[in-house]
Amino acid sequence: MLRYFYTGRDLNKAQNLADLKARAAKKLPNFCMEYLEGGSDDEITLQRNRQAYQEITFRPRTLVDITQRSLSTEVYGQEIQQPLVIAPTGFNGLLSHEGDLKLALAAKKAGIPFIQSMVSTVSLERIAETGVRHWMHLYLFKNRDNLKGIIERAEKAGCEALVLTTDTSIIGNREWDKRNYRAPMKLNLRNLVHLATRPGWIWDILVPQGMPKFCNLGDFLPPEKASAKNAASFLTQEMDPSLNWEDIRWLRQVWPGKLILKGILASEDALQAKALGVDGLIISNHGGRQLDSAPSPLDVLPEIRQAVGQDFLLVVDGGLRRGSDIIKARCLGADLVTSGRAALYGLAAGGQKGAERALEILYSEADRTLALLGCTQLNQLSKDYLLLGRNH
Ligand SMILES: Cc1cc2nc3c(=O)[nH]c(=O)nc-3n(C[C@H](O)[C@H](O)[C@H](O)COP(=O)(O)O)c2cc1C
Question: The pTM is what?
Answer without folding.
Answer: 0.95
